[in-house]
Write a structure and sequence with these properties.
The longest helix has 18 residues. It is built from 13 helices and three strands; from the N terminus they run H-H-H-E-E-E-H-H-H-H-H-H-H-H-H-H. It has 280 residues and is mainly alpha-helical. The radius of gyration is 20 Å and the shape is globular. Strand 2 and strand 3 form a beta hairpin. Bound molecules: zinc ion. The site of zinc ion has 6 residues, from helix 5 and helix 9.
């Protein structure tokens, strides 16, 4: 029905449609090409969540699960991406970590929660993780490993798409504990700080959080929050960037909270750290 000379035009047209439908927008209004459709992104996240449920121990304290979800939803309410449903889970493990799977699946480890001094520090980590989801960083990484051809198959829902989703779940699991690029981290830090303040938290919570993680990772410890804050120069740069951004936000609303008393009460019900060599 089309003569050959139309093919290049069709190709450009379909690519343009794809670009429009797959573009994502963050607080900076930055658009980027992501071929994996949102439905498939959520399917990848669901698959990863099933794996995490099998391999990690969900913390059995319902009040804590509810608390984390409540703080998470406060950040979601002010973030730039609400086309998906967010899920929050506390994992019982001494690892000092938190991560976000594609499609809005967010995990906090009790080892990290134990080190946070107040709700604003926990919310700062939350805002950072949600920012990775808003900017679709993990699905971008997965797409890069999958390759453009496979991503196109996902985009057009062609045959073999379910095998590609399985492959993407495996890739996602492999990447979940590895570092993002510094550019992605800067972006998540920056978006996160805006969301933190918009949600009513004192942005000094972010500074406290970076300092705590730097102290913990100072000895070269692995497993510290996306294994990112383990070097001092990086943390110094992050703190300096955060200070500059906070200064640019002034005047800050007067009603910002750090949520110390509730956090301290909740922290009392976190599991005690396992003896060295005894825990996971
Ligand atoms: Zn990050």
């Amino acid at each position: 029905m089309f003569t050959k000379q139309f093919y290049p035009i069709l190709a450009v047209l379909s690519l343009s449609i794809l670009l429009i439908s797959c573009a994502t927008t963050g607080p900076g209004g930055k658009k980027s090409l992501i071929l994996v459709p949102v439905g498939q992104e959520v399917a990848i996240g669901q698959g990863m969540a099933e794996r995490v449920a099998q391999t990690e121990k969900t913390f059995g304290n319902a009040e804590w699960q509810q608390y984390l979800a409540e703080v998470g939803q406060k950040i979601v309410a002010v973030c730039d991406r609400r086309d998906i449903e967010y899920h929050f889970t506390v994992i019982e493990s001494d690892q000092i970590n938190a991560f976000a799977a594609p499609g809005g699946y967010i995990y906090f480890y009790t080892g990290l929660l134990r080190e946070m001094k107040d709700e604003s520090e926990m919310a700062a980590v939350m805002a950072h993780e949600i920012s990775h989801v808003v900017a679709r960083h993990s699905v971008k990484r997965i797409q890069a490993v999958l390759g453009v051809a496979a991503a196109y198959q996902l985009a057009f829902g062609s045959e073999g798409a379910s095998e590609i989703v399985d492959a993407a779940i495996n890739i996602g699991m492999g990447l979940a504990f590895s570092s993002y690029s510094r550019e992605n981290e800067r972006e998540a830090d920056q978006y996160g700080l805006h969301y933190l303040v918009k949600a009513g938290y004192d942005p000094r919570g972010a500074l406290g959080m970076y300092e705590t993680l730097a102290r913990l990772g100072g000895g070269g410890a692995s497993n510290v929050f996306e294994q990112l804050s383990s070097t001092h120069p990086e943390t110094k740069e992050r703190i300096a960037n955060a200070r500059a951004l906070i200064a640019s936000m002034k005047p800050l609303p007067s009603s910002l909270t750090r949520g110390e008393s509730r956090y301290r009460r909740m922290a009392d019900s976190l599991p005690a750290k396992a003896e060295a060599g005894g825990g996971k």
